[in-house]
Amino acid sequence: MSDREQFLISEEPYYREVHKEIELYEAAYAVRMPLMLKGPTGCGKTRFIEYMAWKLGRPLITVACNEDMTASDLIGRFLLDANGTRWQDGPLTTAARIGAICYLDEVVEARQDTTVVIHPLTDHRRTLLLDKKGELISAHPDFQLVISYNPGYQNLMKDLKQSTKQRFGALDFDYPSADIESEIIAHETGLEQEAASKLVQIAHRGRNLKGHGLDEGISTRLLVYAGQLVAKGIDPKAACQMTLVRPLTDDPDMRDTLDAAVSTFF
Amino acid sequence: MSDREQFLISEEPYYREVHKEIELYEAAYAVRMPLMLKGPTGCGKTRFIEYMAWKLGRPLITVACNEDMTASDLIGRFLLDANGTRWQDGPLTTAARIGAICYLDEVVEARQDTTVVIHPLTDHRRTLLLDKKGELISAHPDFQLVISYNPGYQNLMKDLKQSTKQRFGALDFDYPSADIESEIIAHETGLEQEAASKLVQIAHRGRNLKGHGLDEGISTRLLVYAGQLVAKGIDPKAACQMTLVRPLTDDPDMRDTLDAAVSTFF
Amino acid sequence: MSDREQFLISEEPYYREVHKEIELYEAAYAVRMPLMLKGPTGCGKTRFIEYMAWKLGRPLITVACNEDMTASDLIGRFLLDANGTRWQDGPLTTAARIGAICYLDEVVEARQDTTVVIHPLTDHRRTLLLDKKGELISAHPDFQLVISYNPGYQNLMKDLKQSTKQRFGALDFDYPSADIESEIIAHETGLEQEAASKLVQIAHRGRNLKGHGLDEGISTRLLVYAGQLVAKGIDPKAACQMTLVRPLTDDPDMRDTLDAAVSTFF
Amino acid sequence: MSDREQFLISEEPYYREVHKEIELYEAAYAVRMPLMLKGPTGCGKTRFIEYMAWKLGRPLITVACNEDMTASDLIGRFLLDANGTRWQDGPLTTAARIGAICYLDEVVEARQDTTVVIHPLTDHRRTLLLDKKGELISAHPDFQLVISYNPGYQNLMKDLKQSTKQRFGALDFDYPSADIESEIIAHETGLEQEAASKLVQIAHRGRNLKGHGLDEGISTRLLVYAGQLVAKGIDPKAACQMTLVRPLTDDPDMRDTLDAAVSTFF
Amino acid sequence: MSDREQFLISEEPYYREVHKEIELYEAAYAVRMPLMLKGPTGCGKTRFIEYMAWKLGRPLITVACNEDMTASDLIGRFLLDANGTRWQDGPLTTAARIGAICYLDEVVEARQDTTVVIHPLTDHRRTLLLDKKGELISAHPDFQLVISYNPGYQNLMKDLKQSTKQRFGALDFDYPSADIESEIIAHETGLEQEAASKLVQIAHRGRNLKGHGLDEGISTRLLVYAGQLVAKGIDPKAACQMTLVRPLTDDPDMRDTLDAAVSTFF
Amino acid sequence: MSDREQFLISEEPYYREVHKEIELYEAAYAVRMPLMLKGPTGCGKTRFIEYMAWKLGRPLITVACNEDMTASDLIGRFLLDANGTRWQDGPLTTAARIGAICYLDEVVEARQDTTVVIHPLTDHRRTLLLDKKGELISAHPDFQLVISYNPGYQNLMKDLKQSTKQRFGALDFDYPSADIESEIIAHETGLEQEAASKLVQIAHRGRNLKGHGLDEGISTRLLVYAGQLVAKGIDPKAACQMTLVRPLTDDPDMRDTLDAAVSTFF
């Protein structure tokens, strides 16, 4: 299997459009504008980029960024083989060569050398200098760079530099509206609309606690987990505690509040 | 011996169910939901996961996480041999390939690159990008990821990111009730129920001091140590001091308090 | 393709002179004076150096500096091949050998070993000691070193040492005047002068907020992004929010202020 | 010489029992309980473990822990040879394979990865995962893990984690009583009992200053040094200053106080 | 070309003696006393050492020190070639072998291992232990060690240890007197004495601002830059702003003050 | 030349005994007691250990410790050659094998792994575990370990651990008395006793300033430097400023005070 095929999305991912994000993305992709997807964890950013890659028929290479990642992890490195060293492209280089969409998830977590290395790929140059190899590559015409970050994590210590930010157009994401979210839960778990709707209402109560004892709201992903357990025959209350309450907090008061929210509906 | 057989649990581990954790685990495993086991040190989390691996007939790969562990320690690395480099899978990759349960013990101790690397294995993608090798692997259908952590260690400096937490269902663990714990001690040491019960009562006194001079309560594991020495003919008082008091604290007042508790029963 | 050709600018880059920077650059280049380009992000420093490299017919090697870059990343390193180690020139060494203009972008981000290593190339010696190789190379007569930095980032923790600063002449850059900037936007996006002018006026409002809630003004680059989306038929208001507002700030008040500025013109 | 023989203690070490530590150790070894030896520097912990290894006829592998030691220093690593890489067992792995007592001296100094790596060797599993090699080894039935640490060093920054502490039984050590210590000095230096007794009395005065200007008391080891010099014909006062005073402190007042104590007896 | 020839200064460097530094240097070199050159950036320390190396007919090896430099960067390291490892002397080792003057520029920037490694070369031993190679080399009789540092940078965090300082004689350097400095500018740029003198007067005004808003005075090097641009026909005011003002400061008030000083003379 | 011969002191070093340090050293060496030499920089500790090594006819291996030195720098490491890896003994291992005196200069500067690694060489075991090689070596009967440190540097951040300190006897060193020091200067420089005596008197004035503006007194070594320049015909005042004043301080007041002291005598 060639590199390109390995990274193609073979089946249409389930995605429910919220605002006009599909149209805006298509226009941005048409001019190969680098994009930044902003929004809380588990609200559908990863699913959206997979959907767009599928819709546009482009390979997608996703990299989960972290503070220990080096520029070499993105660009590539020399490996030893029987004839000496052999160059191994990193995921960013592969994406630039095969014309993939390269999705750097939570790029704000990465060290600066990771974020600076993408600069020449995000302006009119569209080049990448493999300095260790002495090669200057021009990105494939289909290549596009997309990054995500969660403004909730943004703090004084960790933020993108302005010279990085100003290289991206930005799309905001949030949890879907109650109707759409219920529809998503039902679709992903096979639950009835009514049970799905109850889970969404519990989530809304939990999301109101963000900033008042919870760092982050209950994500759509956790609602799907809860629904899956209920669909397996687990008592809804136990299922919700296991998926919507226990993972989020160890604070006894917050747990009581969330448990009470669960009890209201089940 | 193949990799898979090396990691199978050959004999049924002794495990005493406390709440309904076995049923909940089985439902979560049925949908391959990533799980987080929460609870104090030495209360049986490791024993539980070994029991479940045995019950489900799945290999178990355990990794004791620590702050010096890198993503390569989990994923794998290139080694040199006579024909150049050879790829060596790490424990997480092995688990994903052979369909094992991968248990990351005290994952909160690990560096961020360790925790972020598990993200694509914990959502609908169930993939792992071996970026150094340029290979995207899909997890075996039997693969499941389980992590443990001790909320008592949780502090401002070290906590899982919300984007990691919200990928797991969670099960709470605590010390077993007095009856069950006595039964466990008796089973593991061969002591009479009565002596085992005295040890458990000493433990209860010690556990009340958690947060009042002790960082952590006396674990079931230490009670087993005490029982083993008593069963070997050591004076119970000396045995308790050596296993229930001296390891826990060097504070003279706390030692006196704990020694007094021991004297009450032996 | 030889190294030299790979780094030549083949087509004249579009550049609109603002002050007399072209004449000053040419005089500085005539005596091979090292230069420092100062100014905010996205105001045209990179475009200017590309234009000058084209005008002077010199190859251009650009390195995006970052805090994880080592001196070896600039100078070079030994690699293994079938016959043992082979020296691989880094970009600075290549530039010194082939007589390129070496442009170190945001050099203040680099570690000290990167900035000190350039010293002997920036005085009468014009030499570079490849200490790992034991070779002292004299720069090609055409070689020139150019660095950029953004005074807005300058702080107590990160600044060039005086012994580095005093090796460079300096040229100030800023956003172009309204007329010139509108002309640039129109040229780069194909928009009418009038729409381009509206975008520039929005930018001026945003730039006044620098230091009053925004870390940096809206760059010319972002205006080009906005114009490109409008030219693709996207509603101007949505286009401006996506390119001039969302990338810059997550502060609700600043977003309202900037959205209001957009609404004034579209 | 095989690995095992290299680590056997060939002659009975001189050891004077203080409490019942020999009996307690033997019972703990019988159930292969991991042990922690606690006490001040130079009071005989190392001598005790050598004595026990001799008494039980087990090889002893001692590792002086330090904050730069990595898990690989304990477990092992790949080395290159003519046919590629060759695995070299570390001291902990060797001990687990040959059934040695592995003594980790001042384990609290080590980094976390060193302390966490011992966990699976200290519970019912008695296994060690050589993750870099993909091998899970079961400890030899004779293997036992012993660690030492000095509570006086214990501080907020450096302490064992509770999940480590609760894997060990603990034995307290302190300086021997005056009679026993005099006997030890006399035995080790060939001095008369009377001179030895004077040295011990000086030590007692110094030990009272612990926490009142001295970080640590005068160790038995230093008394042996003093006795050795006196036995070589050095003036006792000069010998004591050189071995009991100058090494401990540079504070003029403390030196005067200790010199005065010396003058009282010699 | 042999190593020695590569480092000989082939042409007499232009150097204007200020005090009796040439005589003092010659006497110090006669007894091979290690020397420390002290003074602000750009006042001629590097030129002086090149002049002395030329005058004494000794090769000169200059190393720009920095905080990322390791002892191996000075001493040397093993490299791989077809027959295994090959030792590569570092610049300090080369200098000790061939009898060069080794000039460590801004040695205070280096890490401690760099500064301690020079100790045995700076006392009666005149040896260098290549510990990685197990070789003890005696310095060539012509070898001398010279270091520079700028007292202005000296602070509590970064200073040479007394045990390093007390191994060096020291020569103070400062900007030359007005007459001599004008002569230097005229010589280096081809300007008339009068124009050169104006530049020096501007510099004097700037140097008075050191400690009152400027970290460092305007160096002789920058005056040469200014003179070169004027000699190329650039307007003197623009030339001075580009070389004497913009590189030094971004503070608007300081820039105005310096611009005013420029306007006084041109 | 064998390793042993390379490290023998071939000529008697000039050393003037101050107290009874030679006798004390000989007694300590007779029982192979590890020793610590304490005293200010440049007072003769290094010369003393060279003298004793010569007197006892033992090879001397000196290591200048520093904070970047690792345990491997002392013990040794594997190197690659044509047949794979080859072990290279470090200086401490070489000393233990050939029976040298190993002198660790300023050991307090080293990292903990360096200081802990010497523990088993400094008690009754006299062994060194080459853990990377899996070899336990017993020290040659002639081997002795000597360390130096300067109490003036001792601070809260950097001090030897008590468990290290209590493994050494200690000898105090200080500047010699005026008579002896004059004799040393005269011997080393060829100056008349009178001129030497003047230099010593200047030094005494400077030493009184220690702790009152100077971090450290003027060392005997610097007096020798001054004498050497005077003997070469340099004006004594200039010679003293260059060697006794400028290296020590950049504080204008301290320089005036020291210059005045110089003027009193020359």
Automatic annotation (TrEMBL), chains A, B, C, D, E, F:
Keyword flag Nucleotide-binding: yes
Single annotated GO MF: ATP hydrolysis activity
Pfam families hit by this protein: AAA_5 (PF07728), CbbQ_C (PF08406)
Gene3D superfamilies tied to this protein: P-loop containing nucleotide triphosphate hydrolases
Domain of life the protein comes from: Bacteria
Coiled-coil segments: none
Domain ATPase dynein-related AAA: start-end pairs: 34-168
Protein keywords: ATP-binding, Nucleotide-binding
Domain CbbQ/NirQ/NorQ C-terminal as annotated: residue spans: 181-264
Family classification: Belongs to the CbbQ/NirQ/NorQ/GpvN family.
Name of the molecule in the record: CbbQ/NirQ/NorQ domain protein
Source organism per UniProt: Nitrosococcus halophilus (strain Nc4)
